[in-house]
Amino acid sequence: MSRAAELAAPAAAPVPAKGSWSGRQIAVVLVIGLAALMVSLTQSLLIPVMSELGVELDASADGIAWIFTSTLLVGAVAVPTFGRLGDLYGTRKMLLVALGALIAGSLICAVSTNLPMMIAGRAVVGLSAATIPLAISLVGVILPREHSRSGIALISAMLGVGGALGLPLAGLVAQYADYHVLFWICVVGGILVVPAILRMVPEPERTAKGTMDIPGTLLLAAAMLSLLLPLAQGESWGWTDPLTVGLLVLAVVLLAAFVLLELRLKSPLVDVRTSARPSVLLTNLASLCVGFALFATLIGTASYVQAPAATGYGFGSSILVGGLCMLPGGLMMLLLSPVSAKLKPRTALTVGALIIAAGFGTRIVLTDHLWQVILGATIAGAGTGIAYAAMPGLIMHATPRSELAAANGLNTLFRSVGSSLASAIGGAILAAQTIALAGHALPSLTAYRTLFAICAGAAVLAAALATVIPRSSTTADAALTD
After folding, report:
1. Looking at domain 3-9+21-213+265-467, what is its CATH homologous superfamily?
2. For position 341, what pLDDT does the model report?
3. Model confidence over 150-175: pLDDT tens digits?
């Protein structure tokens, strides 16, 4: 019997009562969850220290933007690629490779003294973006059926939890220490997690056959570069600039070519036929919408409360306070993820998305007091936790086990595209509607309300998509069955 089988059905006495968790199963979920948390921290860790980075690295705003863009671009390619490699050669093996990239990239950033070195380090960190979909796939396979949903829900919630915890952590470091400490935290966390995974987490039996789709990987990489680069740089290049428009058009052409190529291959990077199943396609589109809303929460909360009171909405708070406003939402994501596991995935996604919409509705209406901002962000966080935890279940019900890691990777890629759209659209809205204050142009309250209204609309769209997902979507070869 393999180690994965032993974990799913322990033979040694004493045998836990049916439905109860063994100590080893709990430890496995905690270790994998910590790995997911360490990686998810990187998505928001630098947001509060952007101004400090500009000064310390003697870099322009465009240069600092590349610190984020490099991670985004590499991650967009790494997520589906590592997912397919995980299906072919071992999910745990590729999870360890992704965590190795987190350690190496964070180490480069921790000792960096100039902008090119920082960008290079963050690009390496981008490879670790594959950690969460790999972790979800791993938990879904090695745990017994009665525990897999709860484990998956916890790991999925870590994507939002890390983003919410990263802001107050970065604010604390910015106030009392050097920004390099943020990267050392990631280095130490990764070093602690890797040996724990090697010791405690088994490698599940591989069921996928075939070879790596190199042409498809290169084509998808080019398509993602053409799509995400103008989304990240459109504000500085200009949205009507020929380069911006040309790259977006090229992205559409390359994605169409990618689909045609994948349909012809026996061992594709992405099984387009599986991805086109209504339960998978609609879940991925809903994931894009929720990813949009989550990232807009990150960019629309900390800066909001730090704005001067003279703006009519801000509170003149410190970076630390701005980050702490996200903390209750992060805790709610963690606490409510088990709720999602108790519901049917389709129902959980619908409910979670509607709660997100209610949170943004609160942000639009209640603006007078700091506690109202925290309330709105917390409600949105609660909905995000429930929605994120539901998505892998929908994917796994409609995906063969041999394609599981790749399918979860594609779902994560849709979330990343949603976040990129939020950054581009949110940045454009906040820059377009400003007020002049002490010689500076700051976003107006109307700009923030517009952003929150769009986020609420995206959440409602996610709920609508969830309602039309087929009720009975489990396939005969599904990785997870009812």
Report:
1. MFS general substrate transporter like domains (1.20.1250.20)
2. 73
3. 788 888 778 777 777 877 888 788 77
